[in-house]
Design brief:
290 residues, alpha+beta, Jelly Rolls, 4-stranded antiparallel beta sheet, 15 strands, globular, binds nickel (II) ion
């Protein structure tokens, strides 16, 4: 491992995050962002499951622009230094904060609702900036080192996936003075641990903020319950996830079939995960590691 790679892995381990990582070229950013806008218009017009699951969790199964990003060599090289040579994509998430949007996300850890065994050592979320990200446009903030505190108690204010992603909140204090703004140029990315506490703010600028988040896992990760699938993007896979196929073109018939199957399977599992967390432990008092 070279010095830069060692440094990246070391920061990821101790801080729980590492950025900036240079990834997409300006031309790739321009192309991806244009394709992303087209994608959002298309799924919105299509309605149904395509619209319902437009921003989570399998964008890369129907969109060649997202497929290209999850396979981007610079991103995979960085993730390989963190997780090793065998890599799968478990999820893609599109985070859009429109111009002058007052919405924000409270402090939370993603790991508490993902239902993955082995994520502590074998998973990372890569947050790719398709536009510049700044404090002014409500970029993500990290609580440095919070991944070492394990699963923090969360208040769940909703029951569906959408509500949980919007409404979950950590019930313990975060030291705001130690919070770090994820400031990136378009094309750069950041990697963070799935137990990293993070939040994001309102967008006070005249331009939308677009980020694609990619959850990378290794074959050591497995679902806590139920059947699930993932896409092998580097190395070999001997793991517990059903194998997914890349889209040949945007929304082609085989890709749509793959997408519908994968999101239905995932939704079932997330429902189970959320139900068991709320039911077994009582809302807001859960301290078990996810
Ligand atoms: Ni999150």
């Amino acid at each position: 491992m070279n010095t830069i790679a060692t440094d990246l892995a070391e920061r990821f381990r101790t801080d729980g995050f590492a950025f900036p990582i240079d990834a997409l070229t300006p031309a790739e950013v321009e192309q991806s962002l244009a394709a992303c806008h087209t994608y959002l218009r298309t799924v919105s017009a299509a309605g149904g499951a395509l619209a319902r699951y437009a921003v989570f969790p399998k964008i890369h199964l129907v969109s060649t622009w997202a497929d290209r990003i999850v396979h981007h060599p610079a991103i995979l090289d960085a993730v390989e230094t963190l997780l090793g040579p065998n890599l799968l994509v478990w999820s893609t998430n599109l985070f859009v904060r429109p111009a002058h949007s007052g919405s924000s996300l409270a402090w939370h850890q993603d790991a508490v609702y993902l239902g993955l065994n082995g994520f502590q050592q074998h998973a990372a979320r890569v947050w790719v900036a398709l536009t510049d990200t700044t404090a002014a446009n409500g970029t993500m903030r990290y609580a440095r080192g919070s991944h070492l505190r394990g699963a923090l108690p969360h208040r769940f204010s909703g029951s569906g996936l959408e509500e949980i992603m919007r409404g979950e909140e950590i019930a313990v204090d975060i030291d705001e003075a130690a919070a770090v703004d994820v400031v990136l140029k378009a094309g750069q990315c950041s990697a963070h641990h799935l137990a990293m506490a993070h939040c994001s703010g309102p967008n006070h600028t005249a331009d939308g903020r677009f980020n694609l988040a990619i959850d990378y896992i290794t074959p050591q990760v497995s679902p806590t319950a139920g059947e699930d699938s993932a896409l092998l993007v580097r190395g070999t896979d001997t793991g517990a996830f059903s194998r997914e196929t890349r889209p040949a073109s945007d929304f082609d018939q085989a890709a749509l079939r793959e997408f519908y199957t994968a999101v239905a399977r995932r939704q079932k599992r997330i429902d189970q995960t959320v139900r068991s967390r709320k039911g077994d432990h009582g809302e807001g008092t859960d301290r078990d590691p996810a």
